[in-house]
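Tutorial, part two.
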Amino acid sequence: MKILTHALAVFLTGAVVLWLVLSRFPAVMEHEAVMDLIHISQAVEKSLDDLSSSLERQVSAFGAAVAEDRNFAMKLIVENDTSASEVTGIAGRYMEPMGFDVLEISTPGDLVLSWGHFPARAGELNGGSDALIGGRPLCVVENIKGKDVLTLQAGSSVRFAEQTFHCSGGVIVDEELLRRLTPRNGVRVILRRGTNVIGLEGVETISDVENNRIIVNDETFPASSVTLPSAGLEEPLELIVIMDKPVKFSPLELL
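Running the prediction step on this input gives:
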């Protein structure tokens, strides 16, 4: 009887110790996941900042190339021929070689002089390009071949022949771009625009990011988010860094 009692006491003591140890595991695991998430989020923000700076440099370089193009200046400034191919086609010549998905030069009043995808768009009004001048790159919607496409664009002004023109250009915000921003395996970078989610398949329900957590399809994941600057959009753009594996928060889930 004493042996049985002793064995039972040892078992209960071991069970209590095991429960106490397991009860600490979720907190430890969550802390490690959050610390890892912080470093990953910093890397994503650095990549996004590098991309924005690169777009700014490339748009400025495009503006400098336009200012030095004698044929462009002759047709636009001297002959005042805005329909000449030397004017309307200049963005198309530079768009792909400079790594842009969209590229445009316009007047300060948003009158398009040249648009990379469709030279015949010259002469139309583009209400978004002025917002890109004088600040950091913004997310804006471009209508490309009849389809509204989300883009990240930078803008700059160029002055020549005593006139000022606006240049804007950037890249399409899609799953390929989000993969470029993803620093390593085991993490995803996704974009939420209203109820739409880019970069994560099979999303039926998704919560807001709170306390470094997000709930996707009833599972909790470590996550962080940053609001992307935009112009002309009704819904905010939220860039979310989410770990691939859900975090367990109770000892029972660990068993």
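The beta strands are 102-106, 112-115, 138-144, 147-160, 163-172, 187-193, 196-198, 213-216, 219-228, 237-243. In part three we will examine how such features are distributed along the chain.
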